[in-house]
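Example record

One chain of 115 residues, shown exactly as stored in the release files.
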Amino acid sequence: VRLVESGGGLVEPGGSLRLSCVVSGLALSGFTMKWYRQLPGKGRDLVASISPTGATTNYADFVKGRFTISRDNAKDTVYLQMNSLNTEDTAMYYCNLRDDPAMYWGQGTQVTVSS
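Predicted structure tokens for this chain:
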């Protein structure tokens, strides 16, 4: 199983980015998918999750109303649309898939919000 994130970069405060996570090695449609983020020296914080069909989404309070998680099971891809970015959103972003007992992570994509 392999997860590959992309879409990170440098953006000014107030800007937007769209992250993608492509999954290979299993059928994405059977799994809840999650996005996490990690600041240097800190643990990973859950940002958002989406159910296998996409019918249910959940968000951390610090991104509610600004970020949107979505998925395209036909493309084995999960997205994180990030709007109204601020400097506190600067972090490495990771997608995650749990197939008990295994936990899979991508390599991460860096998001830097700075003027």
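Notes: The mean pLDDT is 96.
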